[in-house]
Amino acid sequence: MAARKPSKTRKKPASRNSAKKTTVSWRGRIWRGLFYVGLAAVLLFAGYWGWMDHKVRDRFAGAKWELAARIYARPLELYAGAPVSAQMLRLELKGLNYQPVEKVVRPGQFSWQGNRVEVYRRAHKLGAEMIPALPLALTFTSRDAQQIDSFTADDAIVALEPKEIGSIYPATGEDRVLTRLQEIPPLLGETLLAVEDRSFMDHHGISLRAISRAFMANLKAGAVVQGGSTLTQQLVKNMYLTNERSLIRKLNEALMTLSLEWHYSKSDILEAYLNEVFLGQSGNRAIHGFALASQFYFNKNVSALNTEEIALLVGLVKGASFYSPWRQPQRSKARRDTVLAVMRDSGLITDVELTHALAQPLTVVKSPASQHAYPAFVGLVKQQLLRDYPLELLQSDGLTIYTTLAPSVQTMAEESLSQTLGQLETQYKIPASQLQGAVVVTAVGSGEVRAVVGDRNPRYHGFNRALDTQRAIGSLIKPALYLTALESGNFTLATPLDDGPVEHELRNGDVWTPTNFSGIDHGLVPLYTALANSYNQAAARLGLEIGIDEVVDTVHRLGVEQAIAEVPAVVLGAVDLSPLVVSDYFHTLANEGIYSPLRAIREVYAADGARLRRYPLNAREAISSNASYLIDFAMQITARQGTARKLYTQLPESLSVAGKTGTTNDQRDSWFAGYTGSDLGVVWVGSDDNAPLPLTGATGALPVWRALFKQLPSESINRVQPPEVTFVWVDAASGMLSGSECQGALLLPFVKGTQPHQRANCERMKRRESWWRRLWDENN
Amino acid sequence: MRISLIRSLPGAGLIPLVTLITGCAGSAITQTPPSVPGEVQVVDSQPMEPSPPPRVPQTGDPASAPSTAVPIEQQFIIAANQAQAQQDWSTAIEQAERGLRVNRRQPELYLILAQSYWQLGESAQASQFARQGLRYLGPGSEVLQLNLRKLAYPNNAN
What we know:
Chain B: Keywords: Signal. The complex is a heterodimer. Chain A is an alpha+beta fold. Chain A has 23 helices and 32 strands. The longest helix of chain B has 14 residues, at 72-85.
């Protein structure tokens, strides 16, 4: 590069100019720099605000919250003749938190005078439909009546609101019931604004007046006693931000608040606030929003809240735990009364209303309804739901699930199990708490599961024995065995079976030698006797004769889907099933041979009230009506005279029951499956460690079943006799033809043409008219 | 009134008692079931007492079942029929199922189920319900029987 020779004359001015220029350029650069920095800052800020704005709108415009799926019991239907006992109705009303009063004046109350009951049903929602509150009255003929006698209401049939029995809430633990602003009582909204943000309708998200007021109050108190946040700011803080105290969080809060106010109407913001606000805690479950809080604290719809209840809930906004009406009732009442005073000062209520409200005690429910009261049943519901819906959807889409649970039946089943197991432990000197059990109760016909108990402590959230335990079913298999024989056409209930010793060589060379429980051989016995007394040797011989595969096929037809090994021991119950699957199997027998899959869910609704799915009744003819009639009759004999005869030590003779006991090797499992005309109950009793017990099906599970059915209003078995079936007098011992006046004769049903023809000797007996026969004759 | 309804069904348990009472020696066959399954005839100074037969409800009888002008399930039959008239087969099915929860042996409700499933193209389910309904038919319901049979055995006109 060539060197330049600068001239002096040019150098000086140049130097002056240069200095001037340098100064200008330096200042300019600063200004320019500042300008660019400022511009960048503005752009950054705008970008940041834009991002915040996007965040605000993104969440606010879409689904704001994950909503829990709510699970409800079946609504109890009341009508004249409904199989609802007084005890059952009491349990249902108690479960729904109805208040007993002298005179019914408002929804949620009932009065019980003698045999007359008045109930004021609450308003409630079913899917998208709003069901209004409704007064009704009913009578029972007596305290022990098993059905409603008379019923008075606007409709001939009225259902109480279904009890909420559980929910599947989001993993965050936040639970809420979404409510529209229109569904919120105006007084609640007005009170909230009066207490939390008086200038809500006037400010643009941030209220300088509120901030200065809070500043002065805090200055005066020397501590933070008042916040200056508007409702919008509180909403932003709850919805978008954490509880962190920092400048950047404050900045975010301000930006988001302004964005929210810019984009959305006051009513949108208020509605979101009413749904968002934290109002209580129950274990891991956080109660958000006034609609859920209304149910949580008062077990009522938010639209039905009265003045003092509104005041209490609004008071909780300040601190739900601090003012908890259960843990801090005095403090809670004081806060409620403060809110009531604000309501009066704001002109929302009159002095008279204030005086009346102040005189009212806290009317919260005794304790919040547990979301985990029925873990075994809810476990079954979840199992069935998960076939159709992914868990994430159940936890977020606010589904409403109506199930088949009958809470009163559930309570009866729970108490029957826990009390009877305690008694058995004392009676048989079994170590305390060793016995465990499970109960499944099903409505015959509909296949609706009415109750599930999976543990003697029914609130225990652990292993659900009703669904998950797989235990050998012992003699519960025998109805399927004898049914197979009867269906073959080669056997009748009177066919003599050999109950002598059995020896059968297995494929591996071993010899199978099943024996009777008593160790006694009974020689030739009619088929119905072999079933009623559960003789193993007769059953084993019969099973081998008709074919193990045929028996297994029958078990499958009756509703058992799982694979069963076709080995001889199957006919004596070497099949591991859960009580629920046994219920499926026995329900087909109870339902006169029609297989209907058991159901725990009736309907599923979306959050907007649209019905997503109904679980309809399905039917498949599994066994003929003739064979079904015969096996049902034999199981009724089992209940009257066979291994289950102890049922009638406590059940009325007029109640026809069919059932079968089951006991497994070394008495490790005790089973009883029995049904009436309307209900099926399956009970398993045993020990979790599979230890031998001094119990049989008749002494372990049967007493549980009996204790339950003693209380349960249930219809007697009263089957329609198929046209192809006829009744014939046969000799009980030999199964040969007999007559009604022959000693030892009994009536047995036969498919026409299969009745015995060979006549037994008839030893005539003297007849004596019994009192009821005389009575019957007189009345007819 | 469920109990009385079931009693009113044919062969549903009351008539047999009369036969038991008037049981005739030498006539081996009877069409009627005993009141107590497995009850054996015995010569005894204290003969076995079977359970008292259920009494026919009398008007004004405090022990009688309540009296309603129309059986409660009839409401569901009417509602289901109305739905069928509007070709709302799903509602008809729903109403019939509600009726069956009250009285599971009401054949008309099975006919509604069968007809509705048939209309929905589910002929197998229709046939099953029709066959179930046939099990609960009583005498004097020939038309109902005919309708059920048509759906139960669609390939067999007879």
